[in-house]
Amino acid sequence: MRIFDPHIHMSSRTTDDYEAMHAAGVRALVEPAFWLGQPRTSVGSFTDYFDALVGWERFRAAQFGIAHHCTIALNPKEANDPRCVEVLDVLPRYLAKDGVVAVGEVGFDSMTVEEEKAFVRQLELAVEFELPAMVHTPHRDKEQGTRRTLELVEQSGLAPGMVVVDHLNEVTVDQVDEAGCWMGFSIYPDTKMDEHRMVAILQRRGLDRVLVNSAADWGRSDPLKTAKTGAAMLDAGFSEDDVDRVLWRNPVEFFGQSGRLMLPADGSGDETADASATFEGNSILRGSRD
């Protein structure tokens, strides 16, 4: 089983997670820009974070045979903080970089006017840079938030096939499907979706335009949920080719629209990393081995 996790926040995960993910079949991932868990106090906090996404974290993932990509944006939660919105002027510098495969996460958190302004501006940037957009749907008022999301996407002029609307469930999936956007599902231990509900959705509506992710971050989450979803698909009677389509070929098709995927030709990602390699003088190793 080869896996491309299209939404996982590896900056908040450990090297043990990278090792376990590789062992489970993960060979590529996309890390969306998101919030820190506490308020940022300046735009400089974003630029340091963005630099890490396109630099150190890509290096760290490569040490475990995983191709790391990212998306760049002002996330919806921080769009409500006036100390953060000036980062919108900085985004173009990063949206032009290699390995940045979408604008995201954008969208709604609490459905505020400030969030909508930031969302609209960043959809404009996606059009300008000819990049896909990764859209976060709110945890509350999800149906209303998804409806307004689709209205703004239509108004933006960005093609529906260039948009993934994420964190969907049984209530919101049909309207996103009808709009022609890609459908993203975050598989969590306790909230959002689990792998068995995901399998039921796949059985009902098919495999087209579906992205399955772990959305693992610094909270209670599981970076192996993509692999567990693949196993659940096999148990339910899906073929190995079906699993490969959902967990590998679909994310490659969606993010490939950026023209910036950095995948090995055979998709294996099994190149042997140089354990002594460094990034700007830093290594994942700690001390010498006697």
TrEMBL record:
The keyword DNA-binding does not apply. Keywords: Hydrolase, Metal-binding. Residues 266-290 are annotated as: Disordered. Coiled coil: none annotated. InterPro entries: Metal_Hydrolase, TatD-like, UCP005295. GO terms for molecular function: hydrolase activity. The keyword Metal-binding applies. Signal peptide: none annotated. PANTHER family: HYDROLASE TATD (PTHR42658:SF1). Belongs to the metallo-dependent hydrolases superfamily. This is TatD family hydrolase. It comes from Nocardioides potassii. The lineage of its organism: Bacteria, Bacillati, Actinomycetota, Actinomycetes, Propionibacteriales.
